[in-house]
Specification:
The protein has 143 residues and is of the alpha/beta class. The protein has one domain (8-136). Helices cover 38% and strands 18% of the residues. A 5-stranded mixed β-sheet has the order 1-2-3-4-5, sandwiched between helices. A hairpin with a 2-residue loop joins strand 1 (48-53) and strand 2 (56-60). It is elongated, with a radius of gyration of 19 Å. The termini are far apart.
Length: 143
């Protein structure tokens, strides 16, 4: 008998890279869940996702730029300083690792990954329940 594993069961290492993080955030309710954790107001705005390097993901719209940072090495900090200095938009920085200290920046948000994942799970379950309720209420008679 063949065993089927879940998608997450195939991960050997639980750490994700910037590319997987970008894919996660491109799902609307997952991105909205993250923005809710930092009390971000413009959830309905269209955002563009750009990977700058393996440590910085830039998320921007017409008014704001959000930087997701996965490292605090010298090159990353230098790059982040340059990005913020030349930006003419509101800036926020999101960090998932509490060991990454960014004292020299304003508007830094430290996100507990478990809180974010629990919010994603909750929103996903609620969305599936609504979809199933819709399917349940379909009328299969000829229209």
């Amino acid at each position: 008998m063949k065993q089927y594993n879940s998608f997450v069961g195939n991960f050997n290492d639980k750490r994700i890279n910037i590319y997987i993080l970008k894919e996660l955030l491109e799902v609307n309710y997952q991105f909205d869940s993250l923005l809710e954790l930092i009390n971000f107001q413009n959830l309905s705005e269209n955002f563009e996702f750009n990977i700058l390097n393996k440590f910085i993901l830039i998320i921007k719209n017409s008014k704001e730029e959000i930087y997701l940072v996965l490292s605090n090495d010298f090159k990353t900090i230098k790059c982040l300083n340059k990005l913020i200095r030349y930006s003419n938009k509101e800036n926020s920085i999101i960090v998932f690792d509490s060991t990454i200290v960014l004292k020299e920046f304003n508007n830094v948000h430290y996100i507990n990954q478990e809180d974010w994942m629990n919010r994603i799970i909750s929103n996903g379950i609620n969305q599936n329940i609504l979809n199933l309720q819709f399917i349940r209420d379909l009328d299969f008679r000829i229209a």
